[in-house]
Amino acid sequence: MSGKPRLTYCNGRGRMEPIRWLLAAAGVEFEEIFLETREQYEKLIKDGVLMFQQVPLVEIDGMKMVQTRAILSYIAGKYNLYGKDLKERALIDMYVEGITDLMQMILMFPFSPPEAKEKNLDSIKERATNRYFPVFEKVLKQHGQDFLVGNKFSWADVQLIEAILAVEEKIPAVLSGFPQLQAFKIRMSNMPTIKKFLQPGSPRKPPPDECYRETVLKIFRK
């Protein structure tokens, strides 16, 4: 095995996508193993690889890491994307947790029954424009800096640009009332590591389709 982190998950976004984003933003190349069958997943459990019988699984620095938040925290700390002190780390944590709440709605959207999709889409738009995006618009406007915390690129910036692009896929005009976030999106999208990740052929996964939905249900639904 090479020294690259190795990621095990389905061939789609899900809970692994923020991990892919953070590694890519840090300029770290990684390898991926894609689960395609229930048997592959059960073998990982039987072999004792998954501490809580859940993926994502990231093998890094001799560890077999599970739990998305723990993995992201480790990567952020390892690659100096987690602030300069405890106060900055606390701010990053708060911002990340808020964005994660919004992204949870995006994550579950493909699994909504057809009759609930319009209502769920309205909920995503309402939460994004009234609860979450106003927070970051205000932060960027008040301190007048390029990044969310300490005027330095951090995990929080990566999570936010991922969320902005994910919401825009469903609601293209969602940033129309947020000029600071519009400028932030342009800045982040032009950072070399992120720009590379946004190019065709990168490890970034496309929006979930019916094939991805069926694969997830086949593997994880008992």
Automatic annotation (TrEMBL):
The keyword Transferase applies. It is an enzyme of class 2 (transferase). This is glutathione transferase. Residues 85-209 form the GST C-terminal domain. GO terms for molecular function: glutathione transferase activity. GO terms for biological process: glutathione metabolic process. It comes from Spizaetus tyrannus (black hawk-eagle). Belongs to the GST superfamily. Alpha family. The gene is Gsta3_1. CDD domains: GST_C_Alpha (cd03208). InterPro entries: Glutathione-S-Trfase_C-like, Glutathione-S-Trfase_C_sf, Glutathione_S-Trfase, Glutathione_S-Trfase_N, GST_alpha, GST_C, GST_superfamily, Thioredoxin-like_sf. Pfam families: GST_C_3, GST_N. SUPFAM superfamilies: GST C-terminal domain-like, Thioredoxin-like. Residues 3-83 form the GST N-terminal domain. Its EC number is 2.5.1.18. Keywords: Transferase.
